[in-house]
Amino acid sequence: MKKSFAALALLFPLLSSLYAQDVWSRPLDAESLPQYSAVCADLARRPVVKGVFEQTKILKRLGRSLVSRGNFIIAADLGMVWDTLSPFPSVTAVGRDFIIQSTPRGTRSRLDAGGNETFTSLAATISAVFTGDAQSLRENFENYFLNGGGAWTLGLVPREKAIALFAERIILEGDAAAGSALIRSITLHERSGDIIRYVLSGHNFPAGLSNEEKALFSLD
Hints:
The chain is an alpha+beta fold and about 220 residues long. It has a single domain (about 1-215), classed as Lipoprotein localisation LolA/LolB/LppX (outer membrane lipoprotein receptor (LolB), chain A, Clam), CATH 2.50.20.10. Helix content is about 30%, strand content about 40%. It is built from seven helices and eleven strands. The protein has helices spanning about 1-10, 10-25, 35-45, 115-130, 135-140, 160-165, 210-215, and strands spanning about 50-60, 65-75, 80-85, 90-95, 100, 110, 140-150, 150-160, 170-175, 180-190, 195-205. The protein has an eleven-stranded antiparallel sheet with strand order 6-5-4-3-2-1-11-10-9-8-7, sandwiched between helices. The longest helix is centred in the middle third of the chain and has 15 residues, at about 115-130. The protein is globular and about 50 Å long.
């Protein structure tokens, strides 16, 4: 099972290049703008999204992949939480200018990133992607968009150098059913040639966070 999954994971660069070939030929234009705007508006109307993630990182230089799995929380007003369950348990909360990490033993630490342009740009980018902030996406990226067959694909090329230092290209794929747009996967192409792919599932949309979940964004 592990060998078969590893083999499949190594196909992600090929699959991503095929997706890219399609979406990169479709720059956002007057024809696709209404569908693009509808998807962004649908994503933006949900203040909290929770679900399950699987992250696969393809290390080009080493010719291998690393896989992690867990749960995620996206809160428009606070940031995001990656609750990794395997291979090593950990909880990471990412805000606009900080990262808080928690270990199974209860140890917690905070890294302030105020003044770090790369971090703040990346945090703003991730927030814009998950919350469908169309204005931010169009200001900071060249946008490419495909929509059809109940699915959509969005390609993003950073305009800012701070973002490009982390990801040269970003591909998002999701469901396009009216009123229920979802992000199913995010693929980041790094400058190094490495690829990080997130597959998201089990989406649910609570009205807010529990007190325990809110506490993940603070050391108090």
